[in-house]
Amino acid sequence: MAGTTIGIRDEIAALKRTRILAAAADLFYDNGYENTTLDAVAERLGVSKPFIYAHFSSKAELLAEICSRGIASSLEALDQALALDASPGLKLEALSKGFASAVLQSQTYIAIFSREEKNLRPEDFDRINDMRRDFDRKLTDLLRQGVELGEFTLSDAHMAALGIGGMVSWAYVWYRKSGRLSIPQVADEMSGLILAMVQYRPRAGRKAG
User: Fold this and answer.
1) Would you list the domain boundaries of the chain?
2) What are phi and psi of 37, to 5 degrees?
3) Residue 6's pLDDT is what?
4) Which sign does the torsion angle of CA 136, 205, 98, 155 carry?
5) In sequence order, which residues have a C-beta less than 8 Å from that of residue 7 and are 6 or more positions away?
6) What pLDDT, in 10s, does the model give residues 161-195?
7) Cα(204)–Cα(195) distance, rounded to whole angstroms?
8) How far apart are CA 177 and CA 188, in angstroms?
9) Is-contact 77 98, C-beta < 8 A?
10) Around Cβ 141, how many Cβ atoms within 10 Å?
11) CB of 104 closer than 8 Å to CB of 175
């Protein structure tokens, strides 16, 4: 019973944090970080400022959490793809779809990071950059594995990884929910472009899903 109670408390706390982050993200996006106060976030939520302080120590911590969300979800998609019992090509296909979906679902958060990274505390900026480097390193390793197995044709796996990361990450700028394609459709198109970029050739007995 005690464990169940703690679990429920954790879920409630996580829900409250999500609500705070969503309200702060909306205000940061619309008005800018420097023009948004914690009082404004509290007012948006219909709560008192101590409610926010119970979950976040400062506005700077809110910004750091928002800015890290996009890369955190992208890393999660990468790790899920790498954990598959599959060839490099099939892993890259799964990664491409998951990565594109993560970016588009975090569109507001990534836009805030792009505009407000100058306002991050140095330690938060370094932590997020470490996450980005970890993503680039893991993707580079996957591309190299594909080259070694004859599935990909690349002269520079690291540059290709940076190119893939840049292409997908930039989708936050042009994607519109009211546009021609849904997020799954964009993810499928991105996956096709990425597989073409690396000149994917399935090995005998393997085919793309």
Assistant:
1) 1-56, 66-209
2) -105, 160
3) 62
4) positive
5) none
6) 999 999 999 999 999 999 999 999 999 999 999 99
7) 17
8) 16
9) yes
10) 15
11) yes
Say if residues 146 and 113 touch (Cβ distance below 8 Å). no
Q: What is the pLDDT of residue 208?
A: 42
What is the gyration radius of the CA atoms in the chain, in angstroms?
A: 20
How far, in whole angstroms, is CA 187 from its chain's centroid? 14
CATH class of 1-56: mainly alpha
pTM, full prediction: 0.86
Tell me the pLDDT band of 1, cut-offs 50, 70 and 90: low
Residue spans of beta strands (DSSP E) within 97-203 = none
What lies within 8 Å, CB to CB, of 108 at 6+ separation is 25, 26, 29
Q: At what angle do helices 122-148 and 157-169 cross, to 10 degrees?
A: 120
Residues 119, 126: contact at Cβ < 8 Å? Answer: no
CATH code for residues 66-209:
1.10.357.10
For residue 206, pLDDT over 60 is answered with no
Are the C-beta atoms of 28 and 40 separated by less than 8 Å?
A: no
DSSP assigned state of 203: P
Helices (H), 1-121: 2-31, 38-45, 49-53, 59-82, 88-105, 107-116
Helix axes 88-105, 122-148, angle to 10 degrees: 150
56 neighbors 25 (Cβ within 8 angstroms): no
